[in-house]
Amino acid sequence: MKDFTRRDFLKTASVAGGGLVLSAGMLNAQAAKSGKRLNIAMVGVGAEGRVLLQSLLKMPNLNFVAICDIWEKYNQKYALALIKKTLKQTPKGYIDYKELIKDHAKDLDAVFIATPDFWHSPMTVDFLEAGVNVYCEKMMSDTLEGAREMVRAARKSGKLLQIGHQRKSNPRYIYAREKLLRDASICGNIMACNGQWNRAVSRDIEAPKNPKYAIPQEILVKYGYRDMNQFLNWRWSKGLGGGAISDLGAHQIDIFGWMLGARPTRVMASGNRDYYKNADGTPAHDWDDNVMCIFEFDKTFQGKKAQAFYQVLTTTSAGGGYFESFMGDQGTLKMSENPALTKLFRENNAPDWKPLIDKGVIGAGEAPAASAKIADARESKALVGYSFPEKVPGFSSEKPIHMYHLENFVGAVRGENKLSCDSEHAFEAEAAVFKAREAVTEGPLTFSDSDFVVS
Ligand SMILES: NC(=O)c1ccc[n+]([C@@H]2O[C@H](COP(=O)([O-])OP(=O)(O)OC[C@H]3O[C@@H](n4cnc5c(N)ncnc54)[C@H](O)[C@@H]3O)[C@@H](O)[C@H]2O)c1
Asked: How many angstroms does the Cα of residue 52 sit away from the middle of ligand 1?
């Protein structure tokens, strides 16, 4: 696996945490802009674009030059109004991103792209070629070839391309990877992982009732959407998005390989489209409602084999929550973007964790409820659940979870740090997702090294 070095991680962690570490070696040509206001634009200000915008509005020294969104009367209007209200800035609104490039590429330091997946590759390539640094949401593209073109364009342009796998900049995730799994070897040998994102049944997103918000049909068609329903629910259409396994799974499958320091060697998967139906009984979506898959790893950072099971469901919340667990012979780390869902469990054969608690490496433990009685003699006893320390370096519960990744990118544009998820690393993770989806129809598949790199 093409891995970050330990030094890179420490730099990433400190930048993500807001304490900027400047290293002479890392100051590149872009350092000329360091400390200056950055001119930025956004393309796609729907659900995720608004999440990014909320964080960007809190970050210093950013000048919004333009906002592009084909939903002019709704999402574009909302973003322009919010920027004006919050920062008293008046960026120009665009429907077509190519017009934005024509007018502003020369003055732009960076663009943030949060459009549906099938637009990521052409937009990213065009901005990079125009000399603009790009932050693009995951998945990189709805096709592997689209993702490859993005990597090639980043290499050729010499510009920065960050992909929105935001856990890579999250100080809690960096802490778990570096301090807990590696330095403290808190789980012992990790030979199994498990991740899930379960969502309750949800019907298609509907357009606002008021006709004044409608997008003209010719605009929808011009930008690749059959109608308003497909425009709003693009995730489920082949050629536009990749379904739940790529939409949600991409984040967590990425984390398996990153935490294990390895690329998967084999994947098997199963999925079905048996729930969401049209009136005539045919599947309403192109992509599977539910997918379960198993990745095999031949050699983790500990030199061991490991298996990772991943499940994404859109037909039940199964009690809620989303997490990735790393299970070793001495303990388990249950990791989530939601701190309340994060826990550590120490196996009874593990060295005492008291010294780790005393040193502040982990927080105090919480004994299982007295009612947690053993029902069968073969059942393992419930374990004490330990928390993360109260203060994880760089982490603030006040900060939105996407903000660290945006700060990492903006820091990189200013020449202050390296990207925590450049396109080459993101491609590795996303190649695994593409293969898992393929394995649903093709049966178990083997990875080769060439699957993870772009030639
Ligand atoms: N990192 C994360 O945690 C996370 C979370 C959710 C979504 N995402 C990603 O963000 C992206 C957007 O997802 P979303 O949920 O916001 O979708 P969305 O449908 O809510 O928003 C998409 C926006 O893009 C606009 N748009 C569509 N085509 C366009 C075009 N050609 N030019 C300009 N604007 C266009 C739409 O009008 C809309 O405002 C996806 O790639 C998704 O995978 C990432």
From this structure: 11
Q: What's the 30 CA to ligand 1 centre distance in angstroms?
A: 29
Measured CA distances, 163 to 133, 141, 406 (Å): 12, 11, 10
Least confident residue range of 82-91, 245-254, 371-380: 371-380
Nearest Cα neighbor of 216 from 99, 95, 102, 120 is 95
pLDDT at 185 over 60: yes
State in words which class domain 6-169+402-421 has.
Answer: alpha beta
The phi, psi pair for 65, rounded to 5°, reads: -95, -40
AA identity, residue 315: T
Q: What is the per-residue burial (b if ≥16 Cβ within 10 Å, else e) of 182-195?
A: bebbbbbebbebbb
**Is the C-beta atom of 237 inside 6 A of ligand 1?**
no
Residue-range domain boundaries for the chain: 6-169+402-421, 171-394+430-451
* Residues near 203 by beta carbon (within 8 Å), at least 6 away in sequence: none
Q: What proportion of the chain, given as a percentage, has pLDDT over 70?
A: 92
Is any atom of ligand 1 closer than 6 Å to the C-beta of 32?
no
Task: Give the residue-averaged pLDDT of 267-275.
Answer: 97
Radius of gyration of the chain (CA): 23
**List of residues 6+ apart from 270 with CB closer than 8 A:** 291, 292, 293, 440
Give per-residue pLDDT as tens, 395-433.
999 999 999 999 999 999 999 999 999 999 999 999 999
Handedness of CA 274, 277, 283, 286 (dihedral sign): negative
Q: Is there an atom of ligand 1 within 6 Å of 142 CB?
A: no
Cβ pair 346, 386 in contact under 8 A: yes
User: For residue 371, what pLDDT is reported?
Assistant: 76
For 202-241, b where at least 16 C-beta lie within 10 A, e where not — what string?
eeeeebeeeeeeebeeebbeebbbeebebbbbbbbbeebb
- Look up the CATH superfamily of 171-394+430-451: Dihydrodipicolinate Reductase; domain 2 (3.30.360.10)
C-alpha–C-alpha distance, residues 122 and 127, integer Å: 9
Task: Provide the token pair at 282.
Answer: 């045919």
Question: How many angstroms is it from 137 CA to the middle of ligand 1?
Answer: 8
Q: How much is the average pLDDT of 264-285?
A: 96
Beta pairing class for 343-346 and 331-335: antiparallel
CA distance 419 to 408: 6
Lowest mean pLDDT among 3-12, 158-167, 286-295, 369-378: 3-12
